[in-house]
């Protein structure tokens, strides 16, 4: 069934129609500087499609909570635990309720963690609940930044991974991402590149205008037009909008944001006691004594300064011997590798969470008296993923394995180990791991989920899956210049996890 959403006008008397069914399959990217009408556009889209499709709005400023009064959206306050937000998101998909996740009042890092937990709950819903859903993320550059900022690196990776799942893998689960940003240059490229529909509004910086022109297939000389766009005017392109760049004007909306642009207001008449009002502290204010100003020292005479410079330099005493012996890094690394090997020898290690394995790692390090500070959780996850791949010393020193490690860093933490496992098979020219081996390494009994992992890697362009004449699977890695030997994808589950698929 084709449903056209009225977004406004695209010319004299010509409506600007958006194909909702096509949008659900191809996703949308909106760009516009502050004051360009970007939030107004999202509100128009949400209002016009509210009766046709389930909606979820990730709202960092609390502007869209007014949708609840007229269209029945449930407002979810994000000041909850991450586990609770994940469970709520699962129930939302089950009962098909439109919601607004209100992130107002949280700092940036808390907003990123809350949004990641909520999007993760939507993404991990049971297959029976994969109904179509429009997922609108306002200020997407906060949740998918192009570069590291002042927030913790772990929070950035979790949030970026959730946004990547939404835009790259969400379509098969019924999730249609609609992301809006003030700056294309601040938005991660792998997130922006997954959108096939674009609505570009007013912007002034050359780098943003150039990227907008490239996405719309316009000449770089035409990029200047984005500076002249009025508020609420956008240029549209995409299968759900228009096959050619189309200027359009967004129509009116039925609801309004709680906050709006400040309006000029005449100043009140100045009171006669204005000076007393300013300099007299109020009853609730604490009297603070102003800091005492210390007079600067008098300047040193020139003769004294020259005499001081002519003095012989002091000979520094040798540094004292350290109280504690220095840590042997080679011994520390060997101890960590040994502990990781003990953990992976457990057949059930693949089905335990990283948090449980990390606690086991810390205990074993204390028992073995591994010197130095213990690894942080993020570093432990990385070392565990590399250890699970099980590459020997000869292969680890090659360029192909170094490139595989570099490519794995662009993946979410839970997928790095699986990618390194199949990359190790290619580097060592071993057989392609079976679905059962991949599922066990991922910590699941579902072989179909293991197959979906390979589909995801192929969608990202990291590998190519092909089948030989005997029905065996071969995994080729274009960036590594190597491929696995043929392997039976339906081979039975290995007896133990161990190091990779040995």
Automatic annotation (TrEMBL):
Record's keyword terms, sorted: ATP-binding, Nucleotide-binding
Taxon lineage: Bacteria, Pseudomonadati, Pseudomonadota, Alphaproteobacteria, Hyphomicrobiales
Single GO MF descriptor: ATP binding
Keyword Transmembrane helix annotated: no
Region (Disordered): 254-274, 482-502
Cross-referenced InterPro entries: ATPase_Atu1862_pred (IPR014588), HerA-like (IPR008571), HerA_central (IPR002789), P-loop_NTPase (IPR027417)
Record-given protein name: ATP-binding protein
Superkingdom, natural source: Bacteria
Boundaries of every Helicase HerA central domain copy: 12-110
């Amino acid at each position: 069934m084709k449903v056209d959403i009225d977004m406004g006008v695209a010319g004299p008397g010509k409506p600007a129609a958006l194909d909702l069914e096509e949008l659900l399959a191809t996703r949308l990217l909106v760009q516009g500087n502050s004051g360009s009408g970007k939030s107004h556009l999202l509100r128009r889209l949400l209002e016009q499609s509210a009766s046709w499709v389930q909606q979820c709005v990730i709202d960092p400023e609390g502007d869209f909570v007014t949708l609840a009064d007229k269209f029945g959206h449930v407002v979810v306050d994000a000041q909850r635990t991450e586990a609770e937000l994940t469970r709520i998101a699962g129930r939302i998909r089950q009962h098909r309720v439109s919601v607004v996740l209100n992130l107002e009042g949280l700092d940036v890092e808390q907003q990123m963690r809350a949004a990641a937990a909520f999007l993760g709950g939507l993404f991990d819903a049971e297959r029976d609940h994969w109904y179509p859903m429009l997922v609108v993320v306002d200020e997407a550059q906060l949740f998918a930044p192009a570069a590291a900022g002042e927030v913790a690196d772990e929070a950035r990776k979790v949030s970026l991974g959730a946004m990547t799942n939404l835009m790259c893998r969400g379509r098969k689960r019924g999730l249609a991402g609609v992301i809006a940003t003030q700056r294309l240059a601040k938005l991660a490229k792998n997130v922006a590149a997954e959108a096939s529909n674009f609505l570009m509004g007013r912007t002034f910086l050359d780098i943003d205008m150039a990227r907008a022109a490239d996405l719309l297939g316009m000449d770089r000389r035409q990029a200047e037009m984005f500076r002249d766009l009025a508020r609420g005017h956008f240029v549209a392109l995409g299968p759900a909008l228009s096959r050619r760049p189309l200027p359009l004007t967004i129509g009116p909306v039925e609801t309004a944001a709680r906050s709006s642009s400040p309006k000029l207001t005449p100043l009140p008449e100045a009171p006669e006691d204005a000076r007393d009002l300013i300099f007299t502290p109020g009853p609730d204010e604490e009297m603070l004594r102003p800091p005492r100003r210390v007079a600067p020292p008098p300047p040193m005479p020139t003769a004294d300064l020259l005499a001081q410079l002519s003095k012989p330099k002091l000979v520094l005493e040798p540094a004292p011997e350290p109280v504690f012996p220095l840590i042997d890094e080679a011994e520390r690394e060997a101890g960590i590798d040994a502990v990781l090997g003990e953990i992976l020898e457990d057949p059930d290690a693949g089905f335990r969470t990283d948090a449980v394995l990390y606690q086991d790692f810390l205990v074993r390090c204390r028992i073995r008296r591994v010197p130095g500070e213990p690894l942080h959780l993020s570093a432990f996850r990385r070392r565990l993923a590399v250890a699970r791949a099980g590459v020997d010393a000869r292969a680890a020193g090659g360029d192909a394995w170094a490139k595989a490690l570099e490519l794995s860093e662009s993946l979410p933490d839970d997928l790095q180990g699986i990618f390194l496992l199949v990359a190790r098979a290619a580097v060592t020219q071993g057989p392609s791991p079976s679905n059962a081996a991949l599922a066990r390494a991922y910590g699941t009994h579902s072989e179909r989920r293991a197959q979906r992992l390979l589909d995801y890697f192929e969608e990202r362009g990291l590998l190519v899956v092909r089948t030989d004449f005997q029905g065996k699977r071969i995994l080729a890695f274009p960036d590594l210049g190597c491929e696995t030997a043929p392997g039976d994808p339906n081979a039975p589950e290995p007896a133990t996890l161990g190091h990779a698929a040995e």
